[in-house]
Amino acid sequence: MEKDRFDTFSNCYMSAAKSINKLKEKGMAPYGLSSIHTRCIRSLYEFPAGLTRMQISKNCGVDKAQISRIIGELCEKGYVTEISVKSGYKNKIELTEKGRVVAIQINELILKINNFVSGDIPEEKIQIFYEVFEQICENLRNAEAELDISKLYTPEATFGSNLN
């Protein structure tokens, strides 16, 4: 039973991730954007006064070096602008008018996809799904940080030491 749940969860997760990536690629291709570009644009759209690179990095779950590269690419495309303050990491990044229009279009596309995918599922079930999924994600992060897998299972204990 536990093995079946693990396999079902893993297979569903992988299938969903693959479908989401394909949808992202198709939806963002007209804008020349990747999924991380899109996350940055959406994050900046939520904060019209702008964000620092550090704040964008935190919001998007991506390291600062990658965010700097992504911001440079978004500046080249005309989607964002950088407002100088004192040092590079204190500067605010804001959406340009072109970036705001793209953000609105992306948000509309995401809403349409969400409605297509979950439109016939009752809101109560959606709420429960996200609560449970967030708890599973938190538990997985805790397990990753706390569990020493090598102490839970060793091949030698099961098969002996002649695995070479």
CATH fold-level topology of the largest domain: Arc Repressor Mutant, subunit A
Global structural class? mainly alpha
Average pLDDT rating: 87
Instruction: Name the beta content range.
Output: under 5%
Helix segment count? 8
Radius of gyration: 21 Å
Shape: globular
Task: Summarize the amount of helix as a percent range.
Answer: over 70%
Which CATH-level-2 architecture of the largest domain? Orthogonal Bundle
CATH superfamily of the largest domain: Winged helix-like DNA-binding domain superfamily/Winged helix DNA-binding domain
The CATH class assignment of the largest domain is Mainly Alpha
Give the total of beta strands.
Answer: 2
Note the quaternary state here. Answer: single chain
CA(first)-CA(last) distance: 32 Å
Description:
The structure is a single chain. The chain is mainly alpha-helical. It folds into 2 domains: 29-119, Orthogonal Bundle (Arc Repressor Mutant, subunit A); 121-152. It contains 8 helices and 2 strands; from the N terminus they run ααααββαααα. The protein has helices at residues 2-28, 35-46, 53-60, 64-77, 97-118, 123-146, 149-152, 155-159; strands at residues 80-83, 92-95. It has a two-stranded antiparallel sheet with strand order 1-2. Helix 2 (35-46) packs across helix 5 (97-118) and helix 3 (53-60) packs across helix 4. The radius of gyration is 21 Å and the shape is globular. The chain starts with a helix and ends in a 5-residue tail after the last helix. 13% of the residues are buried. The model has no long low-confidence stretch (mean pLDDT 87).
